[in-house]
């Protein structure tokens, strides 16, 4: 391909005194070009980020009247609170003044998956959609958008059936507890 | 015994074919790569395991890191009708020329009372100096925008609107901003929407991984 036929193609003999021109090969060494080609390919492949944006579905509940709100069993409820600095707090059942110190615990996004699963396994029929299992997610004013998406994502990762987790507004007592814990743990 | 002569072969290999392949691949990759449109608003969305691709045709609410909210009406949505609707319902008194200019704008990021003056002036306000659509609890203007959107899509397929409505936010946006956006949606009876996220693989060994399903809901 890269060569050309340089032979004089037979016939036509030159005279005795005529010197033959030196035959120069037109063959080009293509190795550097191949190197360059593959280098560019490698470069493009590595620098291209395959970032296909995905979309996550969000279903918001209608704002019900207090009396229409769903009642959930206390033993099957886990409340997850999202705080400042990617901190996660949680408690089981209801939070009262007496049990706050023992029941209100802090954790982080790495540990929460295990806690969600433990709760799920502790509730009878935890993996079935008809069970009483319920996760309540409350976001603090200082938590970020990515925190609330991450926790919803954890719910999908743990295969919690839809309708078994809900976002609820944070209460004043919970907010105060978070602030106190943050101060105690020195989270800024 | 006669010596066996091993013919000396040249080690030069013809590189032409390989060169062709290399450049063919290079050309293919360059042409097959979809160019990402330059983003005016720099936003780093959080990641999720959801595997559904975000639709191209969209009404997008963007939340930036510093808490500003922008509305982008995609070109193939009923953009013109939405802008005309808000002009009449909120009495913005935009002239025909100003309306046309607003329709051409890539995104909306100004309070309603500043739109007229901004459209009347010849200067183009850069995205970074726009103050965003106010979403405070006292003055949630996104509610009005969403009302115009629902007005325009009223009577049509509600599902179509649900599919188009996207919320994209920087991971570091504070939660109250997101809550305000949700409030604006809820005020207009929009309960379903989608959140734009970066894709992330399902962690190995997790419950979702065991089921082998993908999140497509």
Descriptive notes:
The complex is a heterodimer of chains A (188) and B (217). Chain A is α/β, with parallel strands linked by helices. Chain A is 33% helix and 16% strand. A five-stranded mixed sheet of chain A has the order 4-3-2-5-6, sandwiched between helices. In chain A, strand 5 (134-139), helix 4 (145-157) and strand 6 form a beta-alpha-beta unit. Chain A is elongated and about 120 Å long. By secondary structure, chain B is an alpha/beta fold. Chain B is built from eight helices and five strands, in the order H-E-E-E-H-H-H-H-H-E-H-E-H. Chain B has helices spanning 16-32, 79-89, 96-104, 112-120, 142-153, 158-164, 175-187, 207-211, and strands at 47-48, 59-63, 69-73, 165-169, 192-199. A five-stranded mixed sheet of chain B has the order 1-5-4-2-3. The mean pLDDT of chain B is 82. At the A-B interface, helix 1, strand 1 and helix 4 of A face helix 1, strand 1, strand 4, helix 7 and strand 5 of B.
